[in-house]
Design goal:
This protein is an alpha/beta fold. The chain has helices spanning about 5, 40-55, 65-80, 95-105, 120-130, 150-160, 180-190, 245-250, 265-275, 275-280, 285-300, 320-330, 350-365; strands spanning about 25-30, 90, 110-115, 135-140, 165-170, 195-200, 220-225, 240-245, 305, 310-315, 330-335, 340-345. Bound molecules: 4'-deoxy-4'-aminopyridoxal-5'-phosphate (PMP). 4'-deoxy-4'-aminopyridoxal-5'-phosphate binds near residues 94, 95, 120, 200 and 240.
Length: about 375
């Protein structure tokens, strides 16, 4: 009899699943969630709205999530000033599922996806799990530099001629936002690639950083993906979305499972979007905490990378894995993203920030 390891698809054999540790620690700064709970006024609204729809859970949900798309399009119009319509918007259970829909529709066996490493680890995982060959592009010829070099991105796009290109702005795990000119140039360097700009952290960008949503008109192969997991402080609700050409969003219906967004998910997300300002109220505070975290790390003699996101990539550790463990021993969970001498720290509350910085100081001073 064959073992299950032999029966599983060959490309999955020996692979490990995505697994950021979910540990019960006093200070969890490892997955770029918001540390602030959902405001009570929204909790109350959610409770009312879920109670209202509960009676109809005998029926399948609105397959077209019509109201949710309207609200998401409204949010994009209001924040970007661009005339985004509900028909251009697509949504799914987290932006991971949105990205998976894109790969399922436009990637697949015999096709290639290009990304610029280090970037979001799920871009290659989702690509490969769906049969797409992944190409690890470089951000800069000098691997110690994390900003994407436009000329190099264009060269690699021409050289690999992929079907899919992943850009990430602000980039996870390095933190900086992308100059839109690079998005334009990468788009123009190919006639066939779908160019995905993952803007999961865009609300934390510095004042005046434009969204790639402004580039959508006239660019049918461009997609901007977003999430409610970060700035909306809504990671548990699992709601991601994208804006693209109407025809692009229409095509995603071919790969989504029927009724993929439950009635409850739609109700919960709509309630949050009706309270957008309340949900986003902590964004400015988180940006200040991020800047404090950056300064605090610099004051400790570390090398934090400038950030437009709700986290900071910090360099300068002799042994990042040992520091990660020593911090965890002190109740502070951060992320070892596999970049030598670096750790990524989410900006939590000011109190969590202080605890993290105190723990860092103690660890650096050798009090393991
Ligand atoms: N894109 C980026 C760049 C991310 O960092 C994350 C979450 N860590 C996601 C997408 C996915 O988030 P979600 O599925 O919660 O929307």
């Amino acid at each position: 009899m064959s073992s299950l390891q032999e029966l599983v698809r060959p490309e999955l054999r020996g692979q490990t699943p995505y697994g950021a540790p979910q540990l019960d620690v006093p200070v969890a700064l490892n997955t770029n969630e918001s540390s602030y709970p959902v405001p009570q006024v929204v909790v109350d609204q959610i409770a009312r709205d879920v109670a209202e729809v509960a009676v109809s859970l005998n029926r399948y949900p609105d397959r077209e999530f019509t109201r949710l798309r309207e609200l998401l399009a409204g949010y994009l119009r209001r924040t970007t000033g661009e005339p985004v319509t509900a028909q251009q918007v697509w949504a799914a259970n987290g932006s991971n599922e949105v990205l998976q829909h894109i790969v399922q529709a436009f990637g697949g066996a015999g096709r290639t996806a290009l990304g610029f490493t280090p970037s979001y680890s799920m871009h290659p995982l989702i690509s490969e799990r769906n049969g797409t060959t992944w190409v690890d592009g470089l951000r800069d010829a000098d691997p110690s530099k994390f900003d994407l070099d436009g000329d190099l991105a264009v060269d690699q796009t021409r050289r690999h001629d992929p079907e899919l290109i992943f850009l990430c702005s602000p980039n996870n795990p390095t933190g900086t936002a992308l100059d839109l000119d690079i998005v334009r140039r990468v788009y123009d360097a190919t006639e066939r690639a779908i160019v995905v700009v993952d803007e999961a952290y865009t609300e934390f960008s510095r004042e005046g950083t434009p969204s790639a949503v402004s580039l959508l008109p006239g660019r049918d192969r461009l997609v901007v993906s977003r999430t409610m997991s970060k700035a909306f402080a809504f990671a548990g609700a699992r709601l991601g979305y994208l804006a693209a050409a109407t025809e692009f969003s229409d095509l995603l219906r071919l790969v989504r499972l029927p009724y993929h967004l439950s009635t409850v998910t739609q109700a919960v997300a709509c309630a949050a979007l009706e309270h957008t300002d309340t949900m986003l109220a902590m964004v400015d505070k988180i940006k200040t905490t991020r800047d404090d975290l950056l300064e605090g790390c610099a004051a400790l003699g570390l090398q934090p990378v400038p950030s437009d996101a709700n986290f900071v990539l910090v360099g300068g550790f002799d042994d990042a894995a040992a520091t990660w463990q020593a911090l965890l021993d002190r109740g502070v969970l951060v992320r070892d993203v596999g970049i030598p001498h670096h750790l990524r720290i989410t900006a939590g509350t000011p109190e969590e920030n202080d605890t993290a910085l105190r723990a860092l100081r103690a660890v650096l001073e050798g009090e393991y």
